[in-house]
Amino acid sequence: xxxxxxxxxxxxxxxxxxxxxxxxxxxxxxxxxxxxxxxxxxxxxxxxxxxxxxxxxxxxxxxxxxxxxxxxxxxxxxxxxxxxxxxxxxxxxxxxxxxxxxxxxxxxxxxxxxxxxxxxxxxxxxxxxxxxxxxxxxxxxxxxxxxxxxxxxxxxxxxxxxxxxxxxxxxxxxxxxxxxxxxxxxxxxxxxxxxxxxxxxxxxxxxxxxxxxxxxxxxxxxxxxxxxxxxxxxxx
Length: 236
Ligand SMILES: *Cc1c(COP(=O)(O)O)cnc(C)c1O
Hints:
globular, alpha/beta, nine-stranded parallel beta sheet, binds pyridoxal-5'-phosphate
């Protein structure tokens, strides 16, 4: 019989724990985000009932329809896909956490909307370490400018960085990217007061999350290893 979602989830949780131990941390310091994109609310509900609290979606419209249909205490919804500015308002209304801020205009816009709704919104800046123009994310050289825009964004809490390395067959090949993101955060933190220090690193997916945790990930985004493979008809 095929492995159930609960069984897959339990195995992933164990692997997260072991990778956390290897990096001298505790499993509870690492947030497991179950990436539920393309899966219907009833399947997501199975994961919520099994104890998953954090879900990741990459499309604002899809999530807006799904979020109200999943029940559970203290669920948190993370936007992990590219955010177009015309979807910013729906995104703020739908998500608890946004991982994919990649330009200063988006900072200003999200800040204004969150302010209007009387919310403080935790966010990450997405960094493009691969320098692939096809990928979204801030180029490392543009990061200081984008970080500056956060200084005037009182309704946004910038907590750290997210990255998505190029796909490698061998997870070890992604290690350098994960390490680079941690070092970038450490460098930036040297000039920050303790209360403004960045602390979240969203990195690692189904096939490379253990390497990411070893390099300091505090949030891992895991889809297929929990939910099974996604329909291939969509470009996800
Ligand atoms: C789809 C997606 C994931 C999850 O990928 P899996 O390989 O299914 O674990 C993680 N991060 C982002 C940004 C994604 O779009």
